[in-house]
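Annotated sample (chain length 411).
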Amino acid sequence: MITRIEADWLRDPALQLILETLGQNGEEARVVGGSIRNELMGRAITDVDVATTTLPAETVARVEAAGLKAVPTGIEHGTVTVVANGRPFEVTTLRRDVETDGRHAKVLFGRDWRADAERRDFTINALYCDASGEIHDLVGGLADIESATLRFIGDAGQRIEEDYLRILRFFRFFAWYGRGRPDTEGLKASTRLKEGLDRLSPERVWGELRKLLRAPDPARALLWMRQSGVLSRVLPESEKWGIDAVHGLVDTERFYGWPADPLLRLQAIVPPDPARMRELAKRLRLSNADRDRLTAWALAEVPPGESDGAFRARMYFGDRTALADRLSLALASERTKAQGEPDRLAGVAALAERRDRAAGFEAPAFPVNGHDLAASGVPAGPETGKALDRLKRLWAESGFVLDREALLAKL
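Output written by the structure step:
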């Protein structure tokens, strides 16, 4: 079993300076959490967090004396963001929870590394390493990383009752790092305590769902969320719709090299009902852009047997993102069906071609304006608008090849 890591990010002079500064005169500082987990599991490293025995005020004093910037981003919970060489590092004093209400915790600072580890959520998130790269594993996280097991630290129910968001984090981390079935105790506790999800803010719920849907393949996690009743609790729109389409969508994304798109994957598991999408967006407090995209997707259509001219007109006049979303899901569905029905392959190719056109479409400049119509004798007012609209449709149906003279001749 690996007990030491060798990584460029660990040798970063900025990080080494922080660890050295906070580790002097009887104090200690170690890297903690996600960066170690991702390094051991071959995943990208984004943020590097540090745990320290220094109290928050001492953390600030030490790093500022070393010429670094300290930002008290969560100082009441012991967290100071240290900026070194333009990079932020989240530094948190060792602590333990003394009071929790399912959403927030009151903490007591300390110097006990085991107590700090045991207050965390999952074993794979509670690994520490010092400046030399030596790993300190106090809760069995290394073994769980080797077996790709996502396991709560201690009693799963107790961990969840401290913060009900951990139910969603359980499935999110399983989607990213788990293998096989979810941990039995974690699954049972999540099922039993799912009503606690109602106490969470909509922003926290959607934040976790978005991260889960961005996983390389969220299909297995969504399946277990459905089985446990958790998915219906936070996303009731999916209850009578189904999640089977996600697997085919993920396979199609990989085949064509599409990036993982949480909104598109969400569309795969909810009904294309504009009213329900508006309600979903309101309940989860989605951004205006996400709300509009969901609503436009629900309104869009992919008519069978549509002519190429009509398709070009829809690209030009309609919502191209919504059209591309509809075509992406239709393509994924058709590819899945074609695996057992080879005669569908022609339909797959046709959908793929149209989806690529819609996704990459950029409207060219229309070559006619109101002055041209006036010079051609079209009366000013509503007649100008009607004539422009008719010419634009003819132009789109022609494949945008008719020039100014040809279009004016159509008058």
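Annotation: Residues 370-409 form one domain.
Annotation: Residues 251 and 257 are 10 Å apart (CA to CA).
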